[in-house]
Amino acid sequence: MIERPADKEYAPFFAGYVALVTEPDVMGILGNQPAELTELAGRVSAERERFRYADGKWSIREVFGHLVDADRVFGHRAFCIGRGEQAALPGFEENQYVALSHYDERTLAELATEFTAVRKANLIFLDALDDEASARTGVANNNPVSVRALAFIMAGHLRHHFSMLRSRYGVSAGI
Description:
Elements: H1 15-19, H2 26-42, H3 60-82, H4 94-99, H5 108-127, H6 131-135, E1 137-140, E2 143-146, H7 147-169
Antiparallel strand pairs: 1-2
């Protein structure tokens, strides 16, 4: 089991994501989230997938795409730091990534499938870590972060966006 990170193991920006994970078994949460995202995708009509709640905001498809991007980035950071990388890892400009992604041309079902594949790879890596590797720290986006903090950030990030999809996009789900 991956232990909960101490506050010093991640930047204050991520505290809200980590706080959304109150359960002790982050791996169970990470493992269940792809099915939750797939279920959520199935609740959105094809006509509504490009809905934006305001001008300049992401569409529902772009939110799903951002979830893929973020899981890929957080997973890469966890992999590098878990393997002892000492070089600082770059940040990622989420708005630029989405702007260059063409996610609005892909269906939610396609994006949920991609998310599931990315998350599965991340889970396989995280599940194989020993306690020493999961506690290992490195630098990403000019801030210290541990591998275990990244696991909690991944889980909390998805929960944050599930909440946003409900409150701002009107997407309801049993999650």
